[in-house]
Amino acid sequence: MIVLISFPELERTLFGKAAQELDIAQHVRYVDPEDATNMAVLHAHKHGGKGFPKVLILNLDDKTNDWRDVLSTLKAHEDWQKIPVMGFSFLTDNSIVEEFYRLRGASVIRKPQTYADLLMITKNAMRYWLNVATLPDEILAS
Fold this sequence. Notes:
Elements: E1 2-5, H1 9-21, E2 28-31, H2 33-36, H3 39-50, E3 55-59, H4 67-76, E4 85-89, H5 94-102, E5 107-110, H6 115-132, H7 137-140
Parallel strand pairs: 1-2, 1-3, 3-4, 4-5
């Protein structure tokens, strides 16, 4: 399962369309930041037959919620800290990228300007995290 955190409706729609084209739509879930830091909600995803998410994608451009709080909470939790968190952002400020890595984020990807680029980035990122990267056994087994 892939969980997108704090994405506005338009970006959810575009990512959903890309996920359908890549035949991974059934594995994509969207949560609000409040739910992402609510371990009971994530626990329900795990025990609702979905297993641990393989990757979390955090929107760094959400002005209504601080991504730092979400990332810090996830990385402080024993069960969820091993799951890679990708940051997705239009931001070009290197200090934000540095802070994301300092808080133990896995990677930052710049949001594409076109749908074709979104499709390519999504395909490459998912191929990497789901097929190339080595993840902890408990994440892979779920």
